[in-house]
């Protein structure tokens, strides 16, 4: 098959770009350890209520203006609901699911996680503005999904 000069050039540029892209992804994923978190911390989803720290969900102060919020997501609710934190508080969220895959998104922030049964998810956020922040499930989890939400009041 005959290829023209410009076809060869474009094929080499396209192939070279593809190779460079795959090398960058490979180096990022393996050599630099950049990969999505998984299997870091697991638990039995049937025994969430007996497993520390989920046996006592809620907000606990762990430092000056630093808090740890342990939450459980389950069919159409978050436990605990309606949390209050002071302005400027750094909150470490620790979340798991008892039953199915749920989402965990705090509207107006960059906090967004997928909560899977048997996995413990952690994320940290500092609330610099006062107001009410909606926590909602952004993964379809069943017929009551649209009602699955709670709020964080920052005072």
UniProtKB/TrEMBL annotation:
Sequence ranges assigned to domain Cytochrome oxidase subunit II copper A binding in this UniProt record: 49-155
Localization per record: Cell envelope
Family matches, as Pfam families: COX2
Residue intervals passing through the bilayer: 9-35
Record's catalysed reaction(s): 4 Fe(II)-[cytochrome c] + O2 + 8 H(+)(in) = 4 Fe(III)-[cytochrome c] + 2 H2O + 4 H(+)(out)
Keyword terms, alphabetized: Copper, Membrane, Metal-binding, Transmembrane, Transmembrane helix
Domain of life assignment: Bacteria
Function description: Subunits I and II form the functional core of the enzyme complex. Electrons originating in cytochrome c are transferred via heme a and Cu(A) to the binuclear center formed by heme a3 and Cu(B).
UniProt protein name: Cytochrome aa3 subunit 2
Organism of derivation: Bacillus carboniphilus
């Amino acid at each position: 098959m005959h290829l023209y000069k410009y076809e060869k050039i474009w094929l080499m540029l396209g192939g070279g770009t593809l190779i460079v892209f795959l090398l960058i992804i490979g180096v990022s994923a393996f050599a630099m350890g950049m990969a999505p978190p998984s299997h870091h911390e697991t638990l039995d989803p049937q025994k969430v209520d007996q497993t520390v720290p989920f046996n006592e969900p809620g907000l606990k102060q762990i430092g000056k203006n630093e808090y740890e919020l342990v939450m459980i997501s389950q069919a159409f609710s978050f436990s605990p609901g309606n949390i209050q934190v002071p302005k400027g508080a750094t909150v470490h969220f620790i979340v798991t699911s008892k039953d199915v895959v749920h989402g965990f998104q705090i509207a107006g922030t960059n906090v967004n996680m997928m909560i899977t049964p048997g996995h413990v998810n952690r994320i940290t956020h500092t609330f610099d503005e006062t107001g009410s922040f909606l926590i909602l499930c952004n993964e379809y989890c069943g017929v009551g999904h649209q009602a699955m939400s709670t709020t964080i009041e920052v005072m």
